[in-house]
Amino acid sequence: MDDHMDEKQEQKFHQMTETPVSRLICRLAVPCIISMLVTSFYNMADTFFVGMLKSNSATGAVGVVFSLMAIIQAVGFFFGHGSGNFISRELGKQNYEDAANMASTGFFAALAAGGLICLLGQLFLEPLAMLLGSTATILPYTKAYLRVILFGAPWMTSSLVLNNQLRYQGSAAYGMVGITSGAVLNIALDPLLIFTAGLGVAGAAWATIISQFVSFCLLLIGCSRGGNLHIHISRVQLGPSWYIQIVRGGLPSLARQGLASVATICLNRAAGPYGDAAIAAMGVVQRIMMFSASAMIGFGQGFQPVCGFNYGAKLYRRVKDAFWFCVKSATLFLLAVGVLGALFAPRLIALFRDDPEVIQIGTMALRFQCATLCLSGWIVMTNMMLQTIGKTAGATFVAMSRQGIFFIPLVYLLSRALGLTGVEMTQSVSDILTLLCAVPVQLHALRELDALERGEREQ
Asked: Whole-angstrom Cα distance, residue 276 to residue 61?
C-alpha cells in the first residue's frame, strides 16, 4: 500500500474531517448501536433459554462463566482498541502504510492470545470453574458450559479486533453485518441445541461459539471491502514499538474489561452465601444492565473514529464538539432508560427466571443500578475520548475505577456491613465515586485541547 490516498480513502478522510460532528456521529453510531444491542440481546439469549430449564444452578452457571467470557473479551478489546486507536490517528495523518501494518499485527496477536486461553483453560478446567465463583451445586453445569466456550476463544478475541478496526476506520456497517449475522444465528441455535438436541447448558455454549465463528468469517471478508485495511500475515510487525502502541491504546480496555471479569467473580463470591438464587439474580441483572447501556456504548463507538481522525488531523475543536454532543445525548438517554428500568424491574427479572426469590433479589439490585445509570454518560465518553487520543494514564484510571478500584473492595465491605443489600447496591455506590474522579480528569484533558487549539491558530 502506498502512502498516498486512493479515491475511497480520500472520500473517507474528507467525510471524517469535514462533515458536521453531530450528523457524522449519528451516522456512524447507527450500525454500532445495532451491533451492540444485538450482541447484548444474544448474550442474554443464553440466560433466557437456560432459564427455561427451570434450574437456578444452570442459570447461575451461565452467570459464572460470563466472567470468563469477559476475560476473553478483555483480550479482544485490548488488541482491538490498541490497534484501532493507532489506526484512526494514522489515517487522520494520511499514513496508510503504518495503519495497514498495525491492522495485521493486532489481529494475529489476538488470535494467538485466544489460542493460549483455550489451551490453559482446558488444562485447568475445574480449578478455573471454582475460581470464577462456582458453587458445588453449580459446578457440573459450569464445567459443561465452560469447556465448550473455551474452544471459541481464538476467534472470539480476533473477531473483536476485526470489528473494532473496521469501526475505527469509519466502516462500522461492515462490522454490524458480521456481528448481527452471528447474533441472529446464536438466537436460532440456542433452543435447537439446548432442547431439541438435548444438550442442555452445553448446547447454549455450542450455539455461542458457532455463531461467533460465523461472525469471524464475515468480519474477515469485510476487511477486504470498501477501501478498508486488508489483513495479511506478511504485514505482521515484530518490533517492540508496535506492541508498545497496542499497550498504550489497549490498556484502558484491558483494565476495564479485565476488572469487569474480576468484579463479576467477586460479585458471585459475595452473593454465594445467600444461595444459588442470589447468584442467578445478580447474573440476570448484569445481562439486563449490559443491554441497557449497550445503545449508549454504541453511540460512543460512533464518536471514537471521529475523535481519532480529527485528533490526528489536529482539528481539536471538532474533537471537543463531538465529546460534548455525545455526553449530553448519552446522559439524557440513560436517564430515560433508568426510569423505565426501575419501574418495570420485577417484570424484566421474571423474563429470565420466574422464581420469586430471584425476582425479589434481582429487582432490588436492578433498581439500585438504574438510579445511577445516567452517570455513565460522562464516565464512558471520558474513557473513550482519553483512550482514543492516547491519554493512556487517565483513560486507564477511569476504566479501572468503576469495576476495580471502587467496586472490588466495596462489594466485600458493603456485603459485610449490610448483607445482601450491600451486594445489591455496590455498583451504584461505585458509579458515584467513579464520576467524582472522572470529572476533573476529563476537564484537564479538555483544557489541554484548548491549549493545542490555540497553538495551531498561532502557527
From this structure: 9
> Nearest Cα to 135, choosing from 279, 262, 281, 286?
279
- Residue 230 has what DSSP assignment? P
Share of the chain above pLDDT 90, in %: 39
297 in Cβ contact with 380 (< 8 Å): yes
Length of the chain in residues, anyone?
459
Residue type, 442: Q
Which pLDDT score, from 0 to 100, does residue 16 have? 80
Residue with cell 452445553: 202
323/207 Cα distance (integer angstroms) = 38
Provide the b/e sequence for 178-194 (b: ≥16 CB within 10 Å): bbbbbbebbbebbbebb
Cell of 162: 476485526
Dig out the grid coordinates for 131 from the structure.
Answer: 475460581
Distance CA 29, CA 177 (A): 14
Please tell me the distance from the alpha carbon of residue 333 to that of residue 150, in angstroms, as a whole number: 36
Residues of the chain with pLDDT under 70: 1-9, 42-47, 51, 54-56, 459
pLDDT of residue 5: 45
Is residue 53 within 8 Å of residue 138, measured between CB atoms?
A: no
The label of the residue with cell 447507527 reads 30
Cα dist from 432 to 308, 340, 427, 429, 437, whole Å: 28, 20, 9, 5, 9
Torsion on CA atoms 103, 109, 111, 112, rounded to nearest 10: 160
